[in-house]
Design goal:
Largest sheet: 7 strands, mixed
Structural class: alpha/beta
Helix content: 25-40%
Number of strands: 17
Distance between the termini: 25 Å
Shape: globular
Oligomer: single chain
Length: 502
Amino acid sequence: MKILLAKAAHITSTQVAIIPPLGLLYIAGSIRKDRPDDLIRIIDCRIESDQEFSRIVAEWKPDVIGISAITVESGHALELAEISKAASPDSVVVMGGPHPTSYNDEVLSNPSVDYTVLHEGEITFLRLLDALERGAPVDNVNGIGLRDADGLPSSTVAREFVQDLDQIPHPAWDMVDFSRYEKVKSMSLIGARRVAPIFTSRACPYRCTYCHNMFGKKFQKRSVENVLDEMEILVHQYGVQRFEIIDDIFNIDKIRTAEILQGILDRGLDVKLSFPNGLRGDLLTEELVDLFARAGTEFVSLAIETASPRLQKYIRKHIKLDKIQDVIGWFVERKVFTNCFYMLGFPTETVAEMRQTIDFACRQPSHTAMFFIVTPFNGTELVDQVKDIDADYHLDFNRYAYHETDLNVSGNIPTNVLQRSIKVAYLRFLSNPIRLFRLVKDHPNKKFLLQMAWMLVHRIFFDNLNHRDMIVRLRTAVGLEKSIDRDGEPVLAASETRAKAA
């Protein structure tokens, strides 16, 4: 079979984070092992145009097209599905990743999507390919979304999560042109560089009400040797010396955490590490923080979310606020560039509690902070909490982006106050001259500071709620769209026009 794997895009002036598509690389590695005669191609539409995607589909005529998307990329993912059916009507279109896992019915309401892969994809996608190749009933494949006899969205029996992550082949790193990615910002606030993302574990056993259930709630880990072997391959075969560890919770097992970091030192790997997803800060000791630094850690994010003790219980984060302050200080003392995550506008949150969080953030010595408006996703307990306030709540995908949204689920805080508080939080946080001096002094990539300042200016002073139009404009500026007409509408290539009409 010919299989095309595509990564959907979401790029705005305040959200430019592009790393090699790790999920698709894992899928490709698994296909190679299980189905060695298949032909596989990967296209990342964050660095390639929709026109190039359409051309490949039209010329190559894949048997199956797999599209990966998180929710913020969902609009573009459906556009890719429509382009696929217009360019190659006989191709089977499958969508996987966090978005269809949470919004299976919405995705399958689009006739251009034939199936969805729910949760982990390595085994499920292989079994779907087997069924399609044999012409066997796909409703016997566990873990997929499909349409029932009445044409309505449905799903099969859930597939068990992978218990031994070492049995999953390493990602197909030879399919990555790292030179394309080293020119763009990654997930970390370090800027463009040659970097590879790594999963060392999956799932998080904590029960925070806002968090996803993509990998379940049972912590699954790769062996220390398996992780270090992959890093050695990337260092010696691909010239990668910077890694972004994107686990949900890398440091839940303190012994394993120390073994990986010490293993980097023992193997003499001259690498730099970033942890952009958010370490569980109150599990760290000063000795462990010191080991992070000695192993080459240059960037960490610590997820705090709220400084309100009541809300910590309400969202089941239960983070120890006094301990996290010590941890921030330990990282900063070792000149590890430190970022903290905060969320404003939880259901039942008051203005006083929101200000309590902003005050807490401004007291910390962290180099940077990110303030997000609370966004509930399907499959989380937070949605149920929101529906206690607004029974009709549903996320409008066209009005949602990481940093541009007019969503407000608090029930107490006026929307204009919430929006203004985000801007005030950044202004207060960055108005500290000592912090600014430390930020510049400790940043590991001084060339990125101007771009980071530009992104912050946009985040503070501009309202980018119509972000779909902004995405098109930015993609046009970097050559990923053809043009925009005088009314601000994109001028599509002929293939895209056909896809829109399909």
